[in-house]
Amino acid sequence: MISLITFATISSYFILRRKGAMIMFAGYLRPLHDLDIDEQYTYLKDCDIYFQEAHTSPKRRNKLKDLLNHLQKGDKVIVARLNVLADSTNHLAELLNELDERKIYFKAIHEEIDTSDETGKHFLPMLNKLISFQSDVISENTRRGLTKAKEQGKSSGRPKKPDENVKKAIEMYQTKNFTLLEIKEQTGISKSTLYRYLEQLS
After folding, report:
1. Confidence band for 165, pLDDT divided at 50, 70 and 90
2. Contact present, 68 and 104 (Cβ < 8 Å)
3. Is the model's pTM score more than 0.85?
C-alpha cells in the first residue's frame, strides 16, 4: 500500500512543475466502508501524486483542500468512484464546477467519466441541470407545504430562530447569487447542514 502524501512527495511534485511538466494526474483517496484504500490505489496506480484522507468524515477534508491548492490548469483529478470525492449531488457539482472554472479535468474510473474527452465533457452540464431540477422540486415542495399548513391553520406564531436561519439559507442558495461562504456568514448554516436539508427536501 502506498503511504499518505508526504513532504517528499510534495517536493517531487514541485520539482516536476519546475521541469515543465504540463499535466499532473492527482489521485484523491478517502476510505469508504465498501471501498478501502488498498482497492482505490489499484485504480490510481498511474497517478503522479496522491492525496489520501485518513478518515471517512465528510467534514474533515484536509487532503481535499491540499489537493485543490496544488492543482493548476490542465491537471487531472482522478478518483476510483464519485462518492470518494463528494458526499452529495450538490457537493459534487460544487467541486466539479470549481475544477471546470480552473480548466482542470476530472476522472471517475468506476463510472467511466472523464471530462477531458468528448463524452465526459457533457457530464457537468447534465449534473448542473439535475441540481437546478432538484432546486425547483425543493422550492415547489416548500411552497406546497406552507400552503397546506396555512389551509389547515397550523400557523404556530413566530418560528424558532434556527428554523428561520435554515429557511433563509435555502432561499439564498436557490437564488444562485451567493457563495456557500456568504450563506454561512449571513445565516450561520454550514455547507454540510445546508446540503442535508436540501437532500431531505428533494
Report:
1. confident
2. no
3. no
